[in-house]
Amino acid sequence: MRFRAKIVDLACLNHFSRVINTIAKLAKTCTLRLTVGKLYFILSDKVANGGVTMWCELCQGNFFDEFQMEGVAAEHNEIYLELVPDNLSRALKTAQSAKAVKIKLTNKHCPCLRVAVELPSLSSSSRIVTHDIPVGIIPRKLWNDFREPSVPDFDVIEANLSGEMNLKIETDLVSVTTHFKDLGNPVWASEDGYQSSAQDRDLESMAEARIDIKKLQQLLAGQQVNPTKALCNIVSKRIVHFILLHEDVSLQYYIPALA
Amino acid sequence: IARISDEFWFDPVEKGLALRSVNSSRSAYACVFFSSMFFQHYCWAAVSQPCQKEKQFSLPCKLIIKSVLPVFRCVNVLERNVEKCSIYTNINDHHITFQLLCKHGVVKTYNLMFQDCDPLQAVFAKHLCPNILKVHSRLLAEIMIHFPTSQEEVTLSVTPMKVCFKSYTEEDTDFSKTMLTEIQLNPEEFDYFQVGVDSEVTFCLKELRGLLAFSEATSVPVSIHFDVSGKPIAFSIEDMVLEANFILATLSDVEKERASQQAPESSKTRTGKSDKTSVDRENSGAVASKKPQWNSNTAPAKPASPLAKREIKDIPRAVKREVTGTEETAVTEAEERAALGEAAGAQYQKFHSLFFGAVSCQKDAPSHSFHSLATASDTEEDFGNAQSSPVL
């Protein structure tokens, strides 16, 4: 198992840092899946997370100048690591003016992601700051736990198919409703190319789901990358699915509905 | 100074005002000296105490930092509103008055009670350190920023070819849970670089951050004087009108080795920086825990008694030496006052432990002062204090 990557471009580095910062705000620990072409940050729905699921996909080519990976075996050319994204965020925080950032999987005292930041200095040789971030190697037999969550057969996009959405908060004393109009209702092509049965549904009827506002807040407050597109799907009373799309990053976040 | 302790010594002397502080485990000492020229008007008079035969040249008193900080809070506001600040002491009433004369005729007066106390002064010969680095405060701040604020201890490792600051780790560090950071620098980055002996010293970063913030404000270069592990490390800044010294104890390698040979201690607390953990360790009966002990011997090592005796004679001279602001900060010790016949309370023992070895222990208090004056015998049970023998 080997992994080495290098970022030289400052803009790419900043972008990558922002993505990591977003992930760090959403999950204390998460899984990093490395494949030849992509990086995935995954949080699978366990009781500890409050049932929340997160799936974030990045195209490595858009960030790294060099990216070499050798998985556990030839036919399973992937690496699954468990890490604390906040550590990675901290390591990159002070790399704002770096000449280069190298990330390597090492195993000195224990498996680590070694982030080496080369900083400009007044002298002829650069200043090198190394951060060893401990990681856990996830064995192959557990890889199935981390599959991309299948998008459930949702009813309609937040409220109804006529592009109206209501965000409602209710307490004992007060109830606040925000009405959104003229939202798009994109047609969702399901995996086997079959168009969803959206046309059969009543355009006006509302689908609703009640979710923990703290989780929604965590998702929205943590955003550091402005998405070009944001989608929200609801399975009535079951789950809310947010998709935030950017050119080279996609972030999916599932929040289960409260009983 | 607030990062070191809750209280500080307010010590006006003829040539200026010294503010000093020492932490509870006596492993960090700070002294900021403002020469009389720093002030617009400086007036100091020797006062002879009725109970003493000889004139006392200094009026040391202790103040609680928390009481004084609010006076000087909000530097921006101060700069805009305050025209003058007067500080004067009233010995009879036991209080110090800080008076801020502000715009529009507003006068804010703060009267703070002080505690009588014995002088606190560090004994550390900076000029005898083989390793000296001088660096701009900005660079030091840029280095320390890479360590998380929760990072307690940092190791500085030097050879003539390179300088490295890294997170401190010990044998039983759980590497799978801790993120380690290391910064490598070229000697060229330092304004002055002298490495007489390869060394690796570990000190407490938290306590240093106070000096870092202060030095950034004054933008004066920071000098670092140190020796091998176990000997203290001094961070100092100096300009025309002020001089600040932060002297920190460093972890001793010798004790680390010996400690690992001892029976493992049940308590897994960190090395005793605070009184609490040190007392816990001592109370559980073991001589030394598995954890290495903090040691702050001054350099160089010399037999205790002849030197201690010499110290006594040096009192008046030493005071003047410090006042003239030379690089040498070797000054008298509180123990001299003990020798002069003043009441030896537990207080004296505390002063000693910074310079005489391991973390102070209340249990050992009665015998402690004598121990440091005598040539220590390196017995097992005195392990903790044995390191105190090479005194000054």
From TrEMBL, chain B:
Give the top-rank taxon of the lineage listed in the UniProt record for this protein: Eukaryota
Where does the record place it?
Nucleus
* Entry keyword Transmembrane: no
Q: What is its main location?
A: nucleus
Q: Which Gene3D superfamilies match?
A: 3.70.10.10
Question: Repressor: present as a keyword of the record?
Answer: no
Cite a single GO BP annotation.
Answer: mitotic intra-S DNA damage checkpoint signaling
Instruction: Please state the Enzyme Commission number of this protein.
Output: 3.1.11.2
Chain segments carrying region Disordered: 257-307, 365-392
Keyword annotations: DNA damage, Exonuclease, Hydrolase, Nuclease, Nucleus, Phosphoprotein
**Which InterPro entries does the UniProt record give?**
DNA_clamp_sf, Rad9, Rad9/Ddc1
Renumbered to this chain, the Basic and acidic residues biased-composition regions fall at 272-283
Q: Looking at the UniProt record for this protein, which Gene Ontology cellular component terms does it annotate, in alphabetical order?
A: checkpoint clamp complex
Q: Which reaction does it catalyse?
A: Exonucleolytic cleavage in the 3'- to 5'-direction to yield nucleoside 5'-phosphates
Its biological function? Component of the 9-1-1 cell-cycle checkpoint response complex that plays a major role in DNA repair. The 9-1-1 complex is recruited to DNA lesion upon damage by the RAD17-replication factor C (RFC) clamp loader complex. Acts then as a sliding clamp platform on DNA for several proteins involved in long-patch base excision repair (LP-BER).
Q: Which family does it belong to?
A: Belongs to the rad9 family.
- Record-given protein name: Cell cycle checkpoint control protein RAD9A
Q: Which organism is it from?
A: Columba livia
